[in-house]
Design brief:
The structure is a single chain. By secondary structure, the protein is mainly β. The chain contains one helix and six strands. The protein has a single domain (about 5-99), classed as Thrombin, subunit H (Beta Barrel), CATH 2.40.10. Helices cover about 10% and strands about 60% of the residues. The N and C termini lie far apart (about 40 Å). A hairpin with a 3-residue loop joins strand 2 and strand 3.
């Protein structure tokens, strides 16, 4: 049986070692991931940069947007991007430098 509700996904993330995520007064859990992405440096040179993201259940955190701050595992970050994944059931948030 596939996970369908945000509460079920949230519980699974928590049970599998998810970090505490706080946004807009709401506490949930998310999986932090580090990966490499291509980026333009000075608009000309393609480089590989290391990015930090957190994956949360869609619908638990309301109206997340770029430029807002979020606390992940006790550290405050700026959200630089966000996208849904897994048929919209989860949302990946890109975390910028500590706020």
């Amino acid at each position: 049986m596939a996970l369908q509700t945000a509460a079920e996904i949230e519980a699974t993330i928590e049970a599998t070692g998810g970090e505490t995520v706080v946004f807009g007064g709401v506490t949930t859990y998310g999986h932090v991931d580090y990966g490499d992405e291509e980026a333009l440096e000075d608009g000309q040179v393609m480089t590989i940069v290391r990015v930090r993201t957190v994956l949360v259940a869609t619908g638990i955190l309301s109206s997340v947007d770029r430029g807002e701050t979020i606390v992940v595992d006790g550290t405050t970050y700026v959200i630089t991007d966000h996208r849904t994944e897994n048929d919209g059931l989860e949302t990946r948030l890109w975390l910028g430098d500590n706020a």
